[in-house]
Design a protein that fits this description.
By secondary structure, the chain is an alpha/beta fold. Helices cover about 40% and strands about 20% of the residues. The N and C termini lie far apart (about 45 Å). Bound molecules: zinc ion.
Length: about 325
Amino acid sequence: LPTAGPDDSIVTIDCQYLGPRRCAAYLVLEGDAAIFVDNNTKRAVPLLLDALKLHGYEPEQVSHAIVTHCHLDHAGGSLTLLNACRNARLVAHPKAARHLADPAKLVAGAKMVYGEAAFQEQFGTIEPVPEYRIDIVGDGETMQVGARTFTFHHTKGHATHHMFIHDAESNAVFAGDDFGSIYDELQIGTSPFGFCISAPVEFDPEESRVSIRKILDTGAEWAYLGHFGAHEVTQPVADQLTQSIDRCERVLNEALASGLQEMALHELITRRMREEMLAEMSACGIEMTGALEEWVGPAVALNSSGIMAAAIKRMDPR
Ligand SMILES: [Zn+2]
């Protein structure tokens, strides 16, 4: 259920996607208006509306539904949310807007990643968002809602349709997938531990490092992550996440140098990704146990498929 973060006006909503505390949407309360950031899937929209009601707002008061990017665990509930909140405008990166208004490519890509059955189970049918409900925002553009100024920063490391959003009022960023995954359940070592999300199909290590630097450059004190919750933005955390990107890049380079293909390539990448993940955890003082597998296993699998996609793209650039 909704929990308060470091700023009372920002509510973290657990979307219960593939289990608790893995995927977040956010509700920003600004005077008479309410703003959602990300919306997960159709299934999560009732949770978003519950959070709204719990804080005393009506769906008609939702002015904007911002999406950090159009991966379906962030933006798959967009149309359902807009249908429930008739005054809300969807705010998106130009490329994300294009995909959401015409989702055929997005759906095809996600079906490749998740498989048909899991796709149906997790996302259901994805219908186009009407273009007249969408506001496209450029890099560096700002949006005023009441006393609040949001600034949109386009980034390309996780996906070319990604942006993070700086909120001047709370001096926080809504980072989407640009500040890695940081799970509270893995903060059991001697220093904070997060990991780069090299998910399919556009992972770019160099641009991922740029994204981390751009977040630091805003001077934000907090990052609200897609996966999961609010975390302090500090140089050590940024450095550790950058190392995690470097490790993903190492696996990608080894994959490219291996000469392997298909299953053999995928096996190499998965084995090396797991080794790098465990090495990074160990560097942060975390000992791997069976109990942590539910957090580490899916991350290794998703990151490996993203490295596989990146390797294939570089071997055969179209
Ligand atoms: Zn993503």
